[in-house]
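Researcher:
Attend to token order:
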Amino acid sequence: MKKIFASLPIAQRSVGKLSKFIPISLLVVLSISCLKIKPLAHRELSPPECRVKKWDIPVSLTAEKQKAVLLQRTPVTCCQSDASCLDEALYGEIADKQFKIQNEKFPNEVPDKQELLTAIARSLQYLQTANAVAAYQNYPVAGINRDRVIKSLQRFREILLKTNSARELHTAIEREFIYYQSVGKDNKGNVLFTAYYEPLYAASRVPTLEYRYPVYRLPPDFDSWSKPHPTRLELEGADGLQGAKGKLRGLELFWLRDRLEPYLVQIEGSARLQLTDGTQTTIGYAGNTAYNYKSIGRELVDDGKLPLKGITMPIILEFFQKHPQELNTYIPRDRSFVFFQENHGEPAQGSINVPLTAERSIATDKSLMPPGALALIRASIPFVNPTGKMAERIVSRYVLDQDTGGAIKGAGRVDYFLGTGKIAGDRAGITVSNGQLFYLLLK
């Protein structure tokens, strides 16, 4: 599911074959432009190397901040009292037993070593392609090249297979790898984290009284469409039902039940569909019109329909559930439009054309960050606790950089893939925090 959008409230990204990207999720964009995000809580620990500020770009690198987006630095010391420094989910350790990550398929499981190994294998597969050779040919950060990324992944995999605890793994990484930290959005290392997911919706291959709202395949003559392209309003009408009267006639791919669902699929860039005949299939990004995404969440705030403070995707969705007539006003304000292809059950793919792995794939600005590379993220992520409620926890995760999105721009943005279905969507809809991003390469 290449991610074309991000999944927080409604920004836009690019999913499916996300090689061409679009905006990120509603909330994502909204959050970026509107919310004043609190930094990760500072808890003064002793000695100094165990204080939260250790995650910031070292002052000694100040002179370099103006020149690069990734700065080589010493590994972050992992103190006994700072569990957020460790990727405990790999081994199912104490922290993740308290807040188990819920998943429709395996409700009592946490991401484990095998999930990360799978993501590593997919990145190594990509790194052998001509696209990877081209991507790294002129990579702007000195010392980072395709060969080094490959060797780093191979060595990390060896260490991962041999270690039996998060602390043991961290110690080995500290000994053998160099950290390249993103300068973030403020040149201090602060990165805005949002999340995205693959929605699951009921759908039909034919229109019915219940299934009326289409998603569309890419027009075969799309490359010859004149620019500026038609807007969303011109293509599908205010109510989303007028496509058959114009350029979209005959391009209907599937029909969904709710006016908002096709739009949310466009935001996320892919979806899994439960069809009326009992089978499932998937759709992914195939192309888009050349317009920048406009956040309908931002529009609701600007119109005074919702308060800026505390706005999240669930709040936006609740507004439209109470005022469905407003959908025909606000959805057309986003002029961008996304086309899809049927992927016949294949998992969501990222922009490097490999399947995404829940909790182990991220999206970044691929004009700046190394595609397919191993990274370490640290951010506040929501989990479903034993009572069924959402609880946030600061965690570290080893991830692979396998995607991008139209709203993921600059060194200060990361979108975290949370998987498929409602729970993943609920978590993604409220994920927005400042954290840190490091790429790990062998010394």
Summary: Residues 211 and 257 are 4 Å apart (CA to CA). The chain has twelve helices and 15 strands.
